[in-house]
Amino acid sequence: MNFTDFHFDENLKNNLRRLTDSGRLPHAVIIESRSAQAAEELARFLTMLTVCTSDDAPCGVCRECLASHSRAHADVVWLQPENKSKTYSMAQIRSVIEDAYIKPNGSGGKAYVFENADERFKEDSQNAFLKLLEEPPRGVRFILICRSALSLLPTVLSRCTVIRVGGDDIPGEEAREAAERIVSGIVSGDEYPLLLALNVLTDREKADGVFAALRLIMRDGIALLAGAEAIFGAESAKALASRLTKSQILALREPTDRAAALLRQNVNANLTVTWLCGEYRRISWQK
Length: 287
What we know:
The protein is α/β, with parallel strands linked by helices. It has helices at about 10-20, 35-50, 65-70, 90-100, 115-120, 125-135, 155, 175-190, 190-200, 205-225, 235-245, 245-265, 270-285, and strands at about 30, 75-80, 110-115, 140-145, 160-165.
């Protein structure tokens, strides 16, 4: 496996090696990142891995790899919206479904890359895509790039492996523990421990890390409800999934992102935390 020209950290490299060596590199991958550049870099690597015919794919030097790296390979499709709404149309999805069953043009496989999938993939097109995503032809790989995997349907999430890269570093242990206390407060049904846990957000230097950890735990809760595995905060995600519905967990994201934006705008931290506490209560304790 050749990582030349790719700026991956050691954790990502080891993860890719482990999945490939064990034959468990999935046919459907969601690349979650706030860095479009980092996400595209990983997508290029995965497309090379898909089409390369070398025993040590991707070799990085064969015709297949070079064409794939330059986004000029006949068996690698980078989908772009064809309608004015800038979303993937049903006609496009039907075209992908038909094309996926056509044999590759002499390469090791075929790859389809969906950029900005969380914005461009509407529910009807996601549903139309599910059967192919679950049972693709041999050698076909789907790569969905998004800022937030939670924006995709749980049924799509359950059929994919989520890989987070650049611009969205894994929060540290302190941020994780703070986020877990907030989740515990959300599911407790008691306002005081929730408000106490949320107080960490008044420290603006810590807030971004805690918000990032909260988003990951919420995403894992959705994944568990969809039958997939939790990646970041297993125990807290289990608590969310056992107490809240998918719709409730999804609804928690809006005030979370709103509060993060308000704090970055230097809005009064105590008022923001009090508002967020009320929103979490409203969403999680409703019948």
